[in-house]
Design brief:
alpha+beta; 2 domains; 6-stranded antiparallel sheet; 2 helices; 6 strands; 18% helix; extended
Length: 168
């Protein structure tokens, strides 16, 4: 008996999980330039450092999916020692990439990844309230609001801006 594949065999659907890579041992080092605005009347504080995110453990849940433990550490530069910052967790469900920050789960990515997918529902799990969006997405949404206002003010056709953004 010979077993093999032929063109009629269904191919697994790529839903874009490679955009949300997660496995034990995976780590990323980011060079961060952070500007903190404490009050509008004072000069902003500028910080530069490195941030390490490292998947240190994983465990299965009752649905057979895995939750991954992510340690975050910082250091001043590549010659400095790492200092533990905090622990996050992350998991991938059938339709979402979820990151928990201080025990609050945020949907960071929706699957399948496809052109034109809206991110308006990305935020705190179980909520569509704008105040519950992850901090990064709130900043992005605020930037988009400012750009929209500028576009309206100077009279640029929004379709023109959308075409430019699609090419990025």
């Amino acid at each position: 008996m010979i077993i093999g594949c032929n063109s009629s065999d269904p191919k697994p659907k790529d839903i874009g999980l490679n955009y949300f890579p997660i496995q034990k041992g995976l780590y990323h080092i980011y060079t961060v330039d952070e500007i903190r605005h404490v009050e509008l009347t004072t000069e902003p504080e500028t910080l530069s450092y490195e941030l390490l995110t490292e998947v240190v453990d994983s465990f299965p849940d009752t649905n057979g999916e895995f939750t991954y433990v992510v340690h975050r550490s910082t250091r001043d530069n590549e010659n400095s020692d790492w200092h533990f910052l905090d622990t996050w967790s992350t998991r991938v469900t059938k339709g979402e990439g979820i990151v928990s920050i201080e025990n609050t789960p945020y949907v960071n990515l929706l699957f399948p990844i496809k052109t034109g997918t809206s991110c308006k529902y990305i935020g705190k799990v179980g909520s569509d309230n704008r105040e519950n969006f992850s901090p990064v997405l709130v900043i992005l949404k605020n930037i988009c609001s400012v750009v929209d206002e500028i576009v309206r003010h100077i009279g640029i056709n929004p379709a023109f801006i959308n075409n430019i953004l699609k090419r990025l």
